[in-house]
Amino acid sequence: MTLPLALEESEAVLGAVLLSPGWLDHAKLSASHFYDPTHGALWDEFKQRQRDGRLIDMVAMRPFAETHFRELGGAKYLMRLTDMSAATSHQVAGYGEIIRDACRRRATIEAARAAIAQAEKGGDDDALTILEQRLQEIASNDMDSDAWERLGVHACESVERAEMGETKGISTGFASLDRATGGLQPGTLWVVGGATSMGKSVFGAGLGRNIAAQGYGVAEVHLEMDATQIGLRTATALAFDPSHRASNPYYLSAQRGELTSEQWSALRGAAKASATLPIYTDARAGRSLSQIEAAARRLFRKMRREGIKPGALIIDHEGLIAPEAGSRFPSQLERANARSEALLAIAKRLGVAVIALSQITKEGSRADGEERLPTAQDLNYGSAISQAATVVILIHRKAYYAERKPDKMRSPEDWDALKSRETTLVVDKARGGMRAQVGVLMDMPTAAVWEPRT
Length: 454
Description:
alpha/beta; 9-stranded mixed β-sheet; 19 helices; elongated
């Protein structure tokens, strides 16, 4: 009987991880799953480097290969593996299942052979006992044993990491929001909700600039706005000066070409300043989550080569994400559930914070003034996305409702509200943080957002 070895699949997975280390966890493998001990040793090195935060690529792995795989050609052996590499993360996961299945089948064959050998000796009871025990071990999920660790180990490691400052999240750029949420942690999903024109895109872009200003790489996926709108909003937001309200260049005025020479000069300077921020945008419409993840993974790999640590993936907005090819859902709620779970999974796989901008229902957008602030339940299929989210923020802008009233129906308070930049960030959920209301200022004509001085 020929043993199932899955050697080609093993080489494909190892090569894929050399090219895309972020796919290491997709395969759900341990060294014991590989038939070839060379493959197992290489996988062990990958996992150790992942735990230590060390690089996994051809250059970093060269000394290990020259030492341990000298007879196989050293670094040339790694090059051969990359030639065999899988093309996508889904293939890595699929090959991982094949490798695990081959391992289980080999173990089953070996257990049966041992039982047969014992039975041939005449010890039927012993043979049955051995076979039963071994099959029970094989039937159990071998990954479960790898996943379970003593709580005390996690506690000690967590305290040590916190003391060294390694658990501190990336600042949002808003001190009050950081106090409520603890900042942006890698592998978390943030949902920013708001009614149409409430300011969620403005706030999302502001978060991106604040993250990038700290040196972290930011990927922005725009499924609604085009590149010109994005560029002009970025420039006017950076050119904004809160003390010169009347002379600030508005992005719609810029779009119409109706700025003064001084405003054009300020806008050109702001555009040049934006080029120094490690923010990359993808303005293609109709992108599915797998397409977004694949593109982001390639971008983050490029960032790391340039010495930039990826910090966030911002998606504007999640309701416009295209369904996967061939996917079918009985209802929009189930589709929303699947999309929410996938967004969180992407955050964990990419190791960055995913910030998904989300639409509020018509009922939720009717919240009037300070009488009723929005909640997570006002989001479209709110229970689905809020359950997956680590942090849920709802935007409530004071001027929003006054803007929608005819002039003759506006009260003096409405006219005052139209001049107001006051905006409330309702932190309705913050896992590990606290619910809060955070005040910021938002200037819609320039797309600027900032925290008021206290």
